Give the backbone structure.
Amino acid sequence: MASVTHKVVVVGGGVMGASIAYHLACEGWTDVILLEKGELTGGSTWHAAGQCPNFVGNYTMAKINHYSTLLYPQLEQLTGQPAGWHACGGIRIATTPEEVDWFNHVAGFGKTIGFPIEIIDPKGISELNPWLNLDGIIAGAYTPMDGHVDPASATNAMAQGARNLGVTIRRHTLVKDIKRRSSGEFEVHTADDIYVCEHVINAGGCYAGEISAWVGVSTPITNMEHHYLVTDPLEAFKNATRELPIMRDPATAGYYRQEQRAGLIGIYEHVGSKEAWAQTGGIPDWRSENELFEGDLDRIAPWLEKAMQRMPIFAEAGIKRVINGAIAHSPDGYPLVGPVVGVPNFWQCCGSSSAVAQGPGCGKYLAQLMVHGDSDINMRGLDPRRFGDYADSDYCRAKSFDDYHHMFQTPLPGREDPAGRPNRVTPLYESLAEKGAVYTESFGWERPKYFVEDGREEKLQFRRNNIFDLIGQECQAVRERVGIMDFSSFAKFVVSGPGSMEFLDRLTSNKLAKKAGGIRLTYALSPNGRILGEWTVTKLGDETFYVIAGASAELETLALLEQSLPEGVTVQNVSDDYGVLLLAGPKARHVLRTVTSASLDNAAFPWLTGQEITVAAVKVLALRVTYVGELGWELHVPIADLKTVYDAIWKAGRTHGIRDFGIIAVNSLRMEKAYLGFGTELTNELTLIEAQAEHFFAPTKGDFVGRDATRAKLSTGCKAKIIYGEVDAFDCDVQGGEPLLHGDQVVGVCTSGGYGHHTGKSLAFVFAQPEFIQDLDLLILGVRRKFSVLTEPVWDPTSDRQKADG
């Protein structure tokens, strides 16, 4: 058996595999081989409908989709092979005011990203699609750069572009196994050869789970059956002077468009969907290709009937062809693009339910990440490590079915999908639910979002809604009295052993505490100085540190800690071992004193220090730090004792007006304090200098990852920075992604925002060109609102309340 060496092996020759091979070559890596078990596109790509919308409700995915509509029209010029691009535009239909608000929100993405979008009335829709039944329609979102592509042609064009740049592509080459050598290299085994490489990319589409299992990695996808059908030719289309826009219609749970002179109708049924290969217990044969399933018109009939009511001319034609093929769905509907846990240089590029639309962008930004160590967009929402061990097969199936059913429904802010939940819960879960806790999910953890005592149900919308006053009450309790929150979802690690101080120093940007009990906020950076992690590090002893990160960053943090672990230093993930109670507010010390004998004044327990104390006869690690800008403590409690400590604090706090609060109130309070958010302001797109967080950069300490790049950015300056400000809002606040305008010029984009309930101000962070600090507006739900730059937090800019004594 021959042995062949390459830098990268791509497994899978669908649109995702061809894209990553092509884009790696564009970034300069040409020692790449793509192995496909059959013909290119032989998995799920060949039977895709090929739509490419710009209209996407997620800012990162909107960037990825937009890149596809830029690349596909150029592929023939770039590669010499046509991609079958049809630039017909697209219209999404709205039948409710909430959907129109969503249209205006996404239209803001268009201004910052660069794709046109117009909100049109029914008359405008009729001019573009004269065959549409307009009953109940109040508006449409028209995106003229949308189109559709022939999936096989587009994939082969990218493959040809890769070949032109030096990539090798082998068809009819079945991969049978992947092994990892002790050196870290991979052996990719086929029937005839062993391919030795530094990097493996799993672009296996529906077969991605089988590929990653060879190296002990789980791929959280579920393969769903999806129908679309093609009608007989329609007389109305034969004489049309322009191609019909692609129509996307929540009421019919799908899409419909023109396919040459016929109609094409795709259905995402709301109930009764089916997992591909479910009857066989999984994919029956890794070698299978070009597989379709028998059409089930009875299953999709209710939605097909609605589509024909919307487009009555479809009912006049017979059905020429029914396509029922497998498509992969991840639990949250976003693709899996990036590294995995525990196997360095094994990359996922799979899990996309809209791979033709997303493939070019996924390939482009993954190639950047692999070659340069960073990408030009925030990749956290695509990182495969966003799912942990809690995402077992039952969870993935439940979530993927749910994602499929909601494919064309408007994602209203605050919507909670119960499928697969609850999963990771604390001993307080049931008792807080009885007190009115409404939960949201973060990395499998259930954490309180807000509390309802009167039984009301939240009315989901883009504007301030019927729980707005409840959030205000929670915020007022924290600002004026005392509040308590189950914040156990933090990722928590103990780093210990000889050299642990030096190890953490080399990984992070800020100076660590020298004395036991000291707390420092610090950042893990890439070699290019981009922000990879935000950590709170407490020195517990000479060679022991407690590292805290956000819930969603648990596996990313673990990977950063373990990737260059020196001999003698250990990392223990204690995320499930300890619960966390956040006690905050001007009365927090009074309450805590009632349940502990420890001294809590500034002399004995200064701000930004931690120590072990006994609370209600339970030993806890108390950290005097909060994310809400108030006097308070994080109490890290053995998980089995969490309810005991909570109950004691609650009882002690009654005389001080204690109140439970949730994560929405936390966002309101942190906006008033101008605390940057990890994943919003602090992302892999930015350095500490651009994030205006240079006070966490210690250039004079010893060498650490990203130091030189950050120092260079500090000296050369930035074209854009994170800026804090107040919004002249009315009945809605910043969600993220809204454009910042100076006249008609887009000069920035919102990263996050919210209403400051105690100060009565709508607040936002923007990433903007710093020379523009006057005459600024934010476009919120289609309305311009004045944005005023603030030079300090609107609440307690000197942190006197956190430092308070007494």
In short: The CA atoms of residues 565 and 752 lie 35 Å apart. The domain at 2-338+341-370 is CATH 3.50.50.60 (FAD/NAD(P)-binding domain). The mean pLDDT is 95. DSSP finds 20 helices and 37 strands in the chain.
